[in-house]
Amino acid sequence: MDKTFTVSTSPHLKVREDTSTIMWAVNLALLPSAVASVYLFGLRSLFVILLSSAVCVAAEALSQLAFKKTITLFDGSALLTGILFAFNLPPTAPVWMIAIGSFIAIFLVKQLFGGLGYNIFNPALAARAVLLASWPVAMTTWTRPVNAFSLADAVTTASPLGIVKEAMRAGVAPELSFGYFDLFLGKIPGSLGETCKVALLAGGVFLIVVKVIDWRIPVSFIAAVAVLSLAFGRDPLFEVLSGGLILGAFYMATDPVTSPTTRKGRVIFGTVCGLLTTLTRNFGGFPEGVCYSILFMNMLTPLLEQYLRPRRFGT
Q1: How far apart are CA 42 and CA 151, in angstroms?
Q2: Rounded to two decimals, what is the model's pTM?
Q3: Residue 11: is the preceding peptide bond cis (ω within 30°)?
Q4: What's the rounded Cα separation, in Å, for the pair 3 and 5?
């Protein structure tokens, strides 16, 4: 019997995971944090998440039509960008700012660079950085958590890191009205998706177990912040549980497009992110530094890839 042999180049062993599978897995991992944000900050959180996601999906479709590319609305990447961008917004973010930021994330940061796989910055974080530079007051107006079904108005207050920063400037000890348990459960002011650490950690562990992300970046990121905070005389547990460290370390620093692919590169990437975050928190003008540290390392990812790539056999 005649047999037909197919000759092709490596790799010959293939896995089932593709871009769509990875993106939908991350979306699934973010679901507990989305539910927690609605419970903590009310139904307004659900509106922010839905609006951000809808604008991102629409901007993706319109951009691909304008650039005459294949429409890829069902791969989950635009939806993921919308959710992550919403997670970086305060609960009181106005509608126009949500729409502008979502459009920036998809059109300017992602599609203008060539689409998925070609962007050099994390779209959600880059959009947050643009909004923070343009409208800093609106982007740093935090409210206390309220029950989802509460009729009480949200009370504006400072974030935990903001309280510490103001106390450092005044040269006095910070007066915190919450403890570690409140930080862990998210009963603190902050962005929609960064406060509930138990939900973020549950999703992060899930992504590591199913091998969607590598543990080296989040572990080195968090460990660097903890160790360096101790060196600067700050409470390491408070620093880890405050701000957007857990959200950034597990869900945005691990972006496969803008992070290194080598093991050494990932450790260096996470460690330097932790260093920059700690330096910003101690000496910068903003109380938080996760966003800018990841964006800075996104720029250095090509250099890490070039100098840390494995040596080819025979060279």
Answers
A1: 9
A2: 0.90
A3: yes
A4: 6
Is residue 50 helix, strand or coil?
A: helix
Q: Which residues pair with 142 in a beta bridge?
A: 157
Q: What is the C-alpha separation between 276 and 274, in angstroms, rounded?
A: 6
Residues 103-124: pLDDT tens digits?
Answer: 999 999 999 998 888 999 999 9
The Cβ of residue 110 has, within 10 Å, a number of other Cβ atoms equal to 29
Three-state DSSP class for residue 176:
coil
Three-class SS state of 37? helix
Give CA separation, 170 vs 140, 141, 173, 208, in Å: 20, 21, 9, 42
Side chain identity, residue 170: A
| pLDDT tens track for 25-76 | 999 999 999 999 999 998 989 999 999 999 999 999 999 999 988 888 888 8
Q: Name the DSSP letter for residue 251.
A: I
Q: HSE-up of 26 (CA within 13 Å, CB side)?
A: 26
- In SS3 terms, 101-157 reads as HHHHHHHHCCHHHCCCCCCCCCHHHHHHHHHHHHCHHHHCCEECCCCCCCCCCCCEE
- The radius of gyration of the chain from alpha carbons, rounded to an integer in Å, stands at 20
Q: What is the pLDDT of residue 163?
A: 81
Domain boundaries along the sequence of the chain: 19-138, 159-306
Q: Give the mean pLDDT of 200-226.
A: 96
Nearest alpha carbon to residue 163 among 148, 146, 142, 182: 142
What's the residue count for the chain? 315
